[in-house]
Amino acid sequence: PDGRILTRLDVAIVGGGLAGLYAIHRLRGMGLRVRAFEAGSDIGGTWFWNRYPGARCDVESLEYSYSFSDDLQQVWKWPERYGTQPEILRYINHVADRFDLRRDVQLNTRVMSALFDSKANDWTLTTDRGDVVRAHFCIMAAGNLSTPRVPEFRGLRDFRGKWYHSGLWPHEGVDFSGQRVGVIGTGSSGVQMIPIIARQASHLHVFQRTANFSLPARNAPMDPERERRHKAEYPARRRAAYDTPFAIAGYPKPTRSALQATPAERRAAYEAKWQEGGSISFLYSYTDLLVNKEANDTASEFVREKIRSIVKDPRTAELLAPKDHPIGTKRLCLDTGYYETYNRNNVTLVDVRSDPIGEITPNGLRTASGVAYELDTIVFATGFDAMTGALREIDIRTTDGATLADRWAGGPLTYLGLMVAGFPNMLIITGPGSPGVKTQMIASIEQHTDWIAGCLDHMSRHGLDRIEPMVEAEAAWVQHVNAVADSTLYPLANSWYLGANIPDKPRVFMPYVGGFDAYKRRCDAVAASGYEGFRLTRQGAPVA
Ligand code: NA7
């Protein structure tokens, strides 16, 4: 159509973050014509957008990195135990330059629609710049926490101060000096930014709806000896990670129930983990912290006691001590001085569970009961339309009349988190039904992408050009994902894993929590069996 650029590709990739970039590298290496379309003005995805103060990965930097190139992992030096957002973005840019990935990324381009033409057997993507892209396969690498959500508060448009969302942070940064600041939200983003904003603001009000559990990160400069040892063992460690539930090696598997230990033993075990820092190791104290409420209570109570011992004002301490979900069933936060921040006299915690935010006013906000707060700046750390948000924003349909929005109206349906029945040749990286968000994400990204690469190679060797999951295989997988979740404590929390933070979103548990190891074995078995559960066919339609 008039003046539109028509690009023909083997594989169109939506997203230029860690997943999209690795997909370019991997598939280009197979001789495929690929291109990624990225809405941002530069690559990096999550690490491009989330520039709020204190943004940092909660997986250790030696783990949270690509494993596909040993040279890369040997050369790169992480300065701290946990990577900061700027450091991780620098790393991503280094990878893109090192492997010459940029030439296949089109920036400033948001994919608006994706239509599968079942006769032509290809996808047509349109973008907000008017591009029309035809591709035999489409890979959705659009992220799990990439659709920022500002709650629909009345009055926001008339607010006279400045406001920001953690996931849409201005590149020039924000100076909070002398400002009266309100932070809404106490998930990982709030917990990371609050201590830093508190040091700048004249006064900080934190509006908390749900108290979250947070453990000390114990961030520190990288220990050179630890780095040397880790690097010497890198290939073996990466292989070992494949046999762990979180895709991270080095945490010995627990062997006994919390209920088999005496109270004194438990206390000593939790205290050791608290001092060591890190969330996985803490949850790995015993076998059953995420499956047995009574066992979990012992760990939850340990952290509540820590909060009470740190926070001086007893009323604030009680508000901060989470009581409505078991520890670990919402993303467990890691912090640097979070609870201590509430001992500052320029910080006030406001409970917006008992008295919700009613409206934003020109000068601040007012709660439902009428209490007004004067604010110069409001920061929304209110999270994302997680896991399905990015795909919900793209109009995905087929010429047979199916739309993904309809198909997923009752919650996302996938086979292995990778594909959706009725949407051939569309592959999702770390989609709902995959363990992605419950793992070291980059390991999942590599595993999914490698599986897809293997699949495309299989198809090309066998003269096949269409793949889609069978409805029964998809239904069985969805049921398995649910059954596994139901055997744990996860469904007890109103978390973004369940879509609970988005009004009207169907309440369905989205990540696969059966472990990365079990998932990978299943994916490998499916491939080895000739792609059991998938229908692979030859349409013979011309692909130019
Ligand atoms: P999260 O974890 O979804 O946290 C969002 C926070 O915002 C959470 O405390 C919410 O309370 C709160 N929130 C959301 N809407 C409101 C309203 N209307 N009023 C008051 N408070 C509200 O997002 P993050 O960005 O912190 O972290 C996302 C993930 O990124 C994290 O898990 C890591 O994996 C990295 P709620 O709990 O819903 O009551």
Q: Can you describe this structure?
A:
Helix 1 (18-28) packs parallel to helix 15 and helix 15 packs parallel to helix 17. The chain is built from 17 helices and 22 strands. It is globular. Strand 10, helix 5 (188-200) and strand 11 (203-208) form a beta-alpha-beta unit. Helix content is 31%, strand content 19%. The strands form 6 sheets. Strands 1, 2, 5, 6, 7, 8, 19 and 20 form an 8-stranded mixed beta sheet that branches. It has 544 residues and is an alpha/beta fold. It has helices at residues 18-28, 46-49, 70-75, 85-98, 188-200, 224-232, 234-241, 263-276, 279-283, 293-310, 314-320, 338-341, 389-392, 404-407, 441-461, 471-486, 516-528; strands at residues 6-14, 34-37, 56-60, 82-84, 105-106, 111-117, 122-127, 132-140, 162-165, 180-184, 203-208, 214-216, 333-335, 347-351, 357-361, 364-367, 372-374, 377-380, 395-398, 426-428, 466-469, 534-537. Ligand NA7 binds next to helix 5.
Q: Which structural traits does this protein have?
A:
31% helix, 5-stranded parallel beta sheet, binds ligand NA7, alpha/beta, globular, Flavin_mOase-like, oxidoreductase, 22 strands, 8-stranded mixed beta sheet, N,N-dimethylaniline monooxygenase activity, 544 residues
